[in-house]
């Protein structure tokens, strides 16, 4: 599990957009896993599920306060962070799982606690929304140019 901590931290940073919150999120997820270690079939999957669930809860709290997370400093990274911040929490989580974590649809659906059809709907809606606000970013996700807008399945 120690070897995966860096990967968890990167994922948490993409989910939160803030290094301090990402570190807290990873610590919370690892602590939760440690408390249930003997009962877990797949501790890594459990940690990832806690990361996403807690990140979604945080996004909801931030939205209620009308605040959004701060993005990474690089120009392209900042544009991506702004675009992701405009998505609904579950849409953002679906994109991070599918395209950053490179999870299969079934893995992503299980982590988010939704069915495959719901995951496809979340991903499709998120890619369409990103295409509206940042078309240059979605070509990286879909592998298509603006002229051939598409949604990943």
From TrEMBL:
Belongs to the sigma-70 factor family. ECF subfamily. It holds the Pfam family Sigma70_r4_2. This is RNA polymerase sigma24 factor. GO terms for biological process: DNA-templated transcription initiation. One of its GO terms (molecular function) is DNA binding. Keywords: DNA-binding, Sigma factor, Transcription, Transcription regulation. InterPro entries: RNA_pol_sigma-70-like, RNA_pol_sigma70_r4_t2, RNA_pol_sigma_r2, RNA_pol_sigma_r3/r4-like, WH-like_DNA-bd_sf. It comes from Virgisporangium aliadipatigenens. Gene3D superfamilies: 1.10.1740.10, Winged helix-like DNA-binding domain superfamily/Winged helix DNA-binding domain. Residues 79-118 form the RNA polymerase sigma factor 70 region 4 type domain.
């Amino acid at each position: 599990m120690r070897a995966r901590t860096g990967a968890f931290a990167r994922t948490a940073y993409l989910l939160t957009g803030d290094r301090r919150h990402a570190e807290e999120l990873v610590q919370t997820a690892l602590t939760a896993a440690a408390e249930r270690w003997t009962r877990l079939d797949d501790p890594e999957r459990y940690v990832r599920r806690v990361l996403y669930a807690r990140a979604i809860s945080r996004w909801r709290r931030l939205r209620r306060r009308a605040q959004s997370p701060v993005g990474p400093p690089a120009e392209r990274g900042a544009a991506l962070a702004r675009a992701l911040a405009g998505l609904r929490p579950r849409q953002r989580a679906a994109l991070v799982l599918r395209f950053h974590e490179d999870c299969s649809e079934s893995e992503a659906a299980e982590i988010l606690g939704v069915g495959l059809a719901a995951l496809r709907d979340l991903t499709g809606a998120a890619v369409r929304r990103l295409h509206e606000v940042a078309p240059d970013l979605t070509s990286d996700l879909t592998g298509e140019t603006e002229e051939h807008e598409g949604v990943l399945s």
